[in-house]
Structure formats: C-alpha cells, structure tokens
Amino acid sequence: MNENQTMTEVTIDPIVTKLAQMNLELSPEVHYRWGTVFSRLEGISLDEAIRVKFDLVKQIEPVLQKMLLEHEQVLFVSKGDLQFKKTVMVLTNLRLLCVDASRKGEPRQPNWAIYYSQIDELKSTVFRHPKFCLKDGMKLSFNDFPKHDRQTLHNVFQDAARRFQEEGLDPEVSQSRENLCGNCFEIVSKQTYECDVCGATFWTPFEFGVRSFLFPPWLSFILRPSRFAYFDLVCYAVVVFSILLSEPKGNPALASGCPESILVRK
What we know:
Layout: H1 12-21, H2 34-37, H3 46-67, E1 74-82, E2 85-92, E3 95-101, E4 107-115, E5 119-124, E6 130-134, E7 139-143, H4 147-166, E8 178-180, E9 187-188, H5 205-214, H6 217-223, H7 226-245
C-alpha cells in the first residue's frame, strides 16, 4: 500500500485474537484504534513485528494515561529521530504528540503536543521520512523511521486531519508546538516557565545559560542522551586540562544555550 492509497483498516477481531495468542495485553484505560496502531498482520517475522510495536506502546502507556484528553483515541504509535533525539510519535484523533525517549523507547522529558489545526501539511523527505510543516514555520523531520510505519502514517494523518477539520475544531494555542508540563502534562504556554495547573517550575534560558557557562557539560546531561553527555564531559575535561597545562594566552570562555521551546523541570 503506497502513501496515496486509501487505507483499509484491519478488522479488530484478528488483532485482538493475535495479541491474546501472544499473551500481550494493553490497558483498557487507553482507547486504541487497533487496526491502525497494529496495522501489520501479515508478512515475514510477523510475531516479532507485533511484539516490537507492543513493547513500544506498553512503555509509553503510563504517560499516555496521564497525557490523553477525555475521549481522545490513540490512532498511531511509532518512533524516530527528531533533532537527533529518539522521539515517540503518537497520532490521536485530536493532535500529534511527541514524547522524548531513550534508545529503548522509555519515555522522558520534554513532551510536546500539536493540534491538527496547526499542521499545514505532512511531506516526505528525499529519504522518504516524514516531515511535518507547521503553521508558524517550524518543520519537524523524523529520521530513522520504520518503513512500514511511513506508509501507514500518511494515511492515518490525512484521515485524522480531515475529520478534525470537518468538526470545525480550532483550539487556541500560544505556538504551533505546545510544551507539555512534565508533571501533569497540561499545556505550558510559550515563554512561561511555571505550570498554571500544578505549579511545577522549569529552567529558563537565562538559568540554562549561566549554568552552562560555569559548567558546559551540564546542559548535555539535562537535554541529551547519556552517551553524548559523557562524551561532552570527556571533551570538556580534555579542553580544561589542555588549558591548564598550556601557557596562558588570554581568558578562554566556554558557554552554550538552550532553545526557549524546550521545557525541563528543575
């Protein structure tokens, strides 16, 4: 099935039966559209493919239980690289959710939400990976995206966005990609660093800048996977020792910043 074809959703019975046969069970508290979350029910290594998808969904399920709105249904789940970080992509009947994750798919912070009214279009890159073009000009390109999921994603998105538009929904937003509180998962408006709902506070760009100036690897430990953070720490140590062992020739300064669109709890 190519990206332009109309998606034929697999009936529920075979999916439920297959999961039961493999002793795989998801929470009834999350409303899944089985035929698109588990869109593959044939082909080579089918059991392995279903188990990989199940493990990914199961890992983020506790986050989904807190993040989803009333009557929100999960249509699609997959994982790719967004801005060089592993990110779980979730399509619901209302919005696109992005959950920062470890290489194994374990959910972390930060998290974002994008209503379909804020997505101009979904394109494919030259390597056939998905790229979302947002109304405020931002572009989100997912790399290292599973081939089968690329085919399903376009159909699920087109159907969900069309239904969203037909309902006449246009929620008020502060930016296309809204930040979600890492504590209660409510939206935290742009240039706001305290959640109005639960009171959780977040690092501001100034606080990031000061701490990164004093100890540059600190930012990596907050925002990047641990393997990159330790690499930065080693590089920093090498630079510091090189400076200490060399003849002084000025006042070197090392600093880095943090994008305003990333919220990390203190």
